[in-house]
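Researcher: Quick test of sequence recovery. Tokens follow.
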């Protein structure tokens, strides 16, 4: 007590400044940090804070003052953060001695400006803020506790007075200051004494009213308000009594109140701190409802709108409110192998048959596409013809050479019928318009490509390669038997229309690896699509060029005639832009120019060619094509004032096609006819081989077309188990061959079978009737060739792995690599912000290479903040939010957090993070994982609710701090580090090999292989295996989820050594590639999980019966008694251990893995004016100066028991309850009737607001005051402070140290 008094005398002039709670304050031990002002008149260089007690100093923060015209400011701040040097002064910022501009992000350090402050944040857990004048803040992560030195103290939880004692004796401020002086070798400095000569009007009453108003009623007795009143008065003095300077102080008071357990209410008004900075128009501070929006670099005021082809968006309070308009679905077949469905699913396959592109489920119409080998090319396939079948036996065939056949007769264009119009707006295109709810646009030059437009009335009524048009991309591979195939090839094989075609196989080979010249040619020309300053940049905000560029490079490398495929791919992007209303002109001046110069005689080229009014027919009768809406198209046609006649163009025989029935065969192309191999040469079909015999294997019979009836199709159109539901045969002529007799169909193995005995197919495999498969969380059973499945909701997955490769809930795949913290997923979306969870992610780099070494994660779950970083889990209790039960598991190499609200988070402690949500979250989440509504088209919805097409713009919008610098477009790492590509390609090829053969039909390896190569190229300065292994493990996890368990790790390829956990002589631990179900652990003794958790690879123990529980901390099997207990925050207690509960006045005890808590008055704590007192402690003892003594003691249930007695002697000092409480007066009569003695007593219960009592002077009154309520709201200062940080400040001529109360 004497030491404390001595300290108070030494520091009696010290004024408390700020408080910050380092641990959850509600009903538990609270550590409060208090700032104090100390004069530092010297302009010397000082050590503010450093990590001095560890073996390696990870941070060091120094500063130097200066005085100009009597005004003290901070001249320079120097930092060393994890080996990176940062120097700041008023004119420049240097990192490693190099000048940098703000914002800056590199080496694990971010430098940004927040209003008038420069903020430097290190991923170490250190944050520094400087206003470039007189204020400097430092925040430290809790992990640095008891590790620091400097003016800010040792951060050891002991009160500030310990900083001023050495060997039990108090030290002077001069000595303390001198201890941390850190001048350079030639630097000298002298002390000076700053004086504040300013005199101002006393504004104490105004400040007291502000801080004791209704919004802060719950803050009374929790924190010292006097220090904030003093700061407020100084603020008003500095700002000439205007209230604009008060915002920081009041914000800090509100935040500290919440940290201490109060419930501050909304205090900002339109007149007081109710504006925001207009960072869009740079117009200063404005009311929030006056904030503008931005789109495509342009500013829009509130109420202004912009429109796209299918959307109209209106600006409202800095966010877009967008309304979808009814627009047709568009399906395209590009380059002969790339399909984009109505619901935007994109896939590639190389077919050699006729396939159902789109078909109405009720059979009104169907579109068939003939895919064949391109001329002289073994790599590429081409679209050879498009067949349209309509009611009333109408059939139209458009061939690649532009010929149009109607019911087998070649028919000149245009064709006008009751429900259909066929015409050619240019030599490059043919348009088919129908009254059946769909149109077809067929491109002919330079190669055949097709675009099918379906009206909104057809939603959910379609099937085929183009999908079902239900706005759900994930089910586009659903087959007629009801299941969703895992890969494109297994899906398209179910939609063949000819039984004679072979099933296609998955082509994994990259065609660009076969020729360096072709690859360079493709990347040069195709790369122009994504040039941000190029001729196509005008369209980038509406149509992302990334997929078109990839397809362009692929086709250009694969095709024999590279320029044709390149120009076709470029024109497909131009067509997509035109469909969105963006017309691109002049692009053929740079590339593909020859197509503008080879127009037929008398024809001209135009970027918007039309045939409306330019035919000879239009001169004598109305041109019906003029009323048809279609995408603007380029090509050759008649110039204005000229008219098209019915003449055809001729070609030499060497360019002629061969004709087999109604089928066209390209020159030098080979086909199979009646078992013979035939090729086309100069228009003649030459055949070799033995003609098929008329004998067939029983029960099949031979069908001879020469003796058949007109219209019969023969063997090519007989039914099989695969084509029973197709109902369409695109064969143009009769084909002789073996067929099954009536009542039987082909079984796909060369035999015949009854229709009801047909097997079910899934992922390329056949299953007999009665056999079952597992699809996600459902069981599907084959019955009469159809799958019958259980209807459990399986939830959705979102994944990030490797160098920031994302797969959203709706299966959109993209890459985005930023250095900030981002919203991975949350349900704080839309108008209702009462969410239950938020997941934030941040990439942790490996040194200065930029390569991602790990991912730091924060999960806000109800009233818990769960931090996952450096393979550790920390739980921080929040003052707001509901209590959501959760469990933490170690499952293989993953750390799993599962919550009762339906969220499961799985982290491999490196770069892979998966979250799984129950279906009740559908359409209610937002962030980098998309909105989980099944519609892949709107997955790129930004924070301000605008749907964009660019992954970079989308990702940057979900930064946690909007002041963190935007990520830039990433360059291809294999181009930057070309020497890495061969190594990366070789090792990543394991994904394409037989090691994963069982998975290739379930999960397309293409995207995972490309991501693996990219990530492995990125690891150019080490971590080769880490990047490679993470990418392959991600594919293995996807295979596992799809039902293919792959054991791919070996002692030389990404090994996991489970034997490390085996004690000598034991063999309990083993590697399991597909994990184990929920285990009995000490954290989860029941062995039951809230949710279905997928099997996760890693090391698992086989615990013996006598030790059946897995202890995750020690990674060993233990008995129930040795398990101990875990509390809600993950803290472990041994069996029988007693500890203080987070609920006041309660002890808890560990008993057989269960925590049992009970009331005990000796566990009670009381809170008064920011201090914590134990049961029985005297809180204060004073008198009122008028002979009445007052005493308060910490009592039961955390209540203050106050006693008022007549003093025997009158002390010289008086006690004031302070201005923070209102005063009520109550007069209470004694409850006894006995004779009054000298000091009889009476007790009364006092509400928290009661601060003074008037009673007869001969009585003693005991008053019980209830403790403050738990926290509710927390208003963050600059939206950056967190509950788990230390907060230090240097201001002007003072240094603010801190003290800790326990």
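Model:
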């Amino acid at each position: 007590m004497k030491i404390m008094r001595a300290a108070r005398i030494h520091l009696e002039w010290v004024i408390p400044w700020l408080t910050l709670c380092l641990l959850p304050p509600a009903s538990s031990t609270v550590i409060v940090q208090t700032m104090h002002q100390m004069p530092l008149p010297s302009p010397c260089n000082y050590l503010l804070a450093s990590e001095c007690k560890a073996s390696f100093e990870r941070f060091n923060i120094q500063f130097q003052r200066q005085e100009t015209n009597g005004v003290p400011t901070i001249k320079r701040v120097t930092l060393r953060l994890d080996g990176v040097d940062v120097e700041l002064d008023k004119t420049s910022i240097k990192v490693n001695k190099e000048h940098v501009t703000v914002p800056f992000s590199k080496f694990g350090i971010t430098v940004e400006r927040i209003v008038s402050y420069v903020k430097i944040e290190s991923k170490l857990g250190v944050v520094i803020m400087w206003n470039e004048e007189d204020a400097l803040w430092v925040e430290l992560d809790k992990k640095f506790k008891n590790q620091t030195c400097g003016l800010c103290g040792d951060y050891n939880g002991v009160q500030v007075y310990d900083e001023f004692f050495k060997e039990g004796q108090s030290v002077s401020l001069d000595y303390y200051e001198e201890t941390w002086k850190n001048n350079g070798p030639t630097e000298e400095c002298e002390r000076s004494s700053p004086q504040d000569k300013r005199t101002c009007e006393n504004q104490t009453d105004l400040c007291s009213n502000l801080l004791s108003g209704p919004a802060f009623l719950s803050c009374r007795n929790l924190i010292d308000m006097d220090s904030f009143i003093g700061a407020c008065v100084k603020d008003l003095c500095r700002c000439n009594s205007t209230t604009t300077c008060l915002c920081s102080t009041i914000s800090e008071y509100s935040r500290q109140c919440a940290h201490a357990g109060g419930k501050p209410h909304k205090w900002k008004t339109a007149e007081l701190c109710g504006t925001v900075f207009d960072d869009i128009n740079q117009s200063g501070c404005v009311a929030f409802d006056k904030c503008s929006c931005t789109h495509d670099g342009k500013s829009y005021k509130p109420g202004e709108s912009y429109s796209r082809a299918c959307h109209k968006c209106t600006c409202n309070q800095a966010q877009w409110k967008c309304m979808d308009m009814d627009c047709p679905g568009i399906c395209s077949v590009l380059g002969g192998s790339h399909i984009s469905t109505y619901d935007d699913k994109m896939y590639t396959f190389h077919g050699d048959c006729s396939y159902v592109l789109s078909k109405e489920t009720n059979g009104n119409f169907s579109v068939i596409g003939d895919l064949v080998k391109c001329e002289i090319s073994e790599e590429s396939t081409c679209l050879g013809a498009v067949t349209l079948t309509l009611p009333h036996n109408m059939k139209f065939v458009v061939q690649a050479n532009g010929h149009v056949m109607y019911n087998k007769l070649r028919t000149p264009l245009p064709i006008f019928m009751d429900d259909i119009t066929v015409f050619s707006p240019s030599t490059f295109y043919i348009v088919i318009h129908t009254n059946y709810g769909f149109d077809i646009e067929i491109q002919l030059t330079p190669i055949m490509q097709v675009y099918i437009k379906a009206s909104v009335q057809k939603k959910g009524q379609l099937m085929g390669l183009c999908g079902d048009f239900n706005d759900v991309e994930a089910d586009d591979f659903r087959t007629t038997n009801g299941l969703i195939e895992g890969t494109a090839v297994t899906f398209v094989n179910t939609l063949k229309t000819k039984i004679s075609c072979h099933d296609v196989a998955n082509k994994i080979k990259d065609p660009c690896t076969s020729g360096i010249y072709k690859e360079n040619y493709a990347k040069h020309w195709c790369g122009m699509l994504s040039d941000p300053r190029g001729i196509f940049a005008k369209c980038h905000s509406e149509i992302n060029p990334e997929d078109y560029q990839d397809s362009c490079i692929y086709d250009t490398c694969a095709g024999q005639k590279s320029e044709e495929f390149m120009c076709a791919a470029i024109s497909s992007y131009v067509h997509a832009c035109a469909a969105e209303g963006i017309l691109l002109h002049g692009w053929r001046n740079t590339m593909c120019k020859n197509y503008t110069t080879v127009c037929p005689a008398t024809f001209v080229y135009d970027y918007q060619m039309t045939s409306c009014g330019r035919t000879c027919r239009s001169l004598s009768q109305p041109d019906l094509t003029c009323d048809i809406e279609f995408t603007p198209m380029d090509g050759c046609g008649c110039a204005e004032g000229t008219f098209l006649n019915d003449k055809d163009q001729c070609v030499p025989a060497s360019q002629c096609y061969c004709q087999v029935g109604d089928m066209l065969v390209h020159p030098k192309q080979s086909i199979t006819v009646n078992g013979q191999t035939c090729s086309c040469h100069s228009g003649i079909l030459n055949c070799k081989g033995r003609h098929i015999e008329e004998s067939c294997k029983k029960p099949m019979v031979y069908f001879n077309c020469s003796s058949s009836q007109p219209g019969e199709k023969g063997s090519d159109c007989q039914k099989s188990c695969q084509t029973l539901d197709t109902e369409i045969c695109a064969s143009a002529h009769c084909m002789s061959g073996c067929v099954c007799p009536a009542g039987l169909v082909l079984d796909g193995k060369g035999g015949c079978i009854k229709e009801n005995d047909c097997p079910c197919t899934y992922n390329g495999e056949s299953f007999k009737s009665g056999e079952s498969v597992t699809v996600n969380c459902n069981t599907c059973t084959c019955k009469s060739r159809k799958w019958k499945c259980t209807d459990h909701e399986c939830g959705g997955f979102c994944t990030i792995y490797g160098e920031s490769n994302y797969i959203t809930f709706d299966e959109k795949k993209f890459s985005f690599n930023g250095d900030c913290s981002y919203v991975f997923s949350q349900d704080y979306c839309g108008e209702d912000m009462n969410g239950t969870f938020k997941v934030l992610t941040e990439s942790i780099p490996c040194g200065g290479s930029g390569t991602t070494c790990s991912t730091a994660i924060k999960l806000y779950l109800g009233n818990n903040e769960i931090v996952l970083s450096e393979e550790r889990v920390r739980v921080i209790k929040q003052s707001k939010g509901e209590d959501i039960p959760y469990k933490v598991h170690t499952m293989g190499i993953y750390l799993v957090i599962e919550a009762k609200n339906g969220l499961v988070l799985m982290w491999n402690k490196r770069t892979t993070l998966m979250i799984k949500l129950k279906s009740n979250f559908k359409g209610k989440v937002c962030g980098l994982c998309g909105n989980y509504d099944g519609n892949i088209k709107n997955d790129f919805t930004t924070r301000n609710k605008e749907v964009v097409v660019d992954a970079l713009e989308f990702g940057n919008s979900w930064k946690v701090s909007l002041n963190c610098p935007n990520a830039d477009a990433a360059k291809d790492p294999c181009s930057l580090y070309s020497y890495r590509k061969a190594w990366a390609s070789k090792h990543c090829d394991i994904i394409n090999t037989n090691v994963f053969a069982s998975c290739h039909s379930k999960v397309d390896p293409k995207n995972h292989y490309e991501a693996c190569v990219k990530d492995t190229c990125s690891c150019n300065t080490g971590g080769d295996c880490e990047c490679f292994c993470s990418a392959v493990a991600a594919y293995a996890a996807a295979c596992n989820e799809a039902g293919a368990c792959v054991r791919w790790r070996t002692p030389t390829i990404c090994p996991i050594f489970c034997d490390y956990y085996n004690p000598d002589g034991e063999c309990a631990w083993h590697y399991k590639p597909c994990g184990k179900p929920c285990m009995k652990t000490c954290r989860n003794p029941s062995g039951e999980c809230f949710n279905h958790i997928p099997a996760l690879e890693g090391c698992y123990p086989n615990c013996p019966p006598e030790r059946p529980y897995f202890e995750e901390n020690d990674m060993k099997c233990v008995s129930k008694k040795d398990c101990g207990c875990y509390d809600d925050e993950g803290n472990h207690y041994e069996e029988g251990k007693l500890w203080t509960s987070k609920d006041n006045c309660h002890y808890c005890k560990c008993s057989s893995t269960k925590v049992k808590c009970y009331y005990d008055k000796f566990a009670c704590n009381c809170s008064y004016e920011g201090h914590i007192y134990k049961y029985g402690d005297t809180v204060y003892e004073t008198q009122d100066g008028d002979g009445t003594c007052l005493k308060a003691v910490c009592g039961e249930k955390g209540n203050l028991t106050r006693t008022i007695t007549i003093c025997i002697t009158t002390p010289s000092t008086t006690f004031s309850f302070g201005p923070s409480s209102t005063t009520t007066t109550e007069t209470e009569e004694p409850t006894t009737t006995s004779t009054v003695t000298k000091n009889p007593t009476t007790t009364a219960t006092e509400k928290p607001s009661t601060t003074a009592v008037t009673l007869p002077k001969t009585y003693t009154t005991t008053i019980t005051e209830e403790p403050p309520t738990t926290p509710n709201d927390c208003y963050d200062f600059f939206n950056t402070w967190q509950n788990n940080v230390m907060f230090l400040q240097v201001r002007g001529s003072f240094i603010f140290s801190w003290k800790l109360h326990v």
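Confidence is low (pLDDT under 50) at residues 1-39, 1210-1302.
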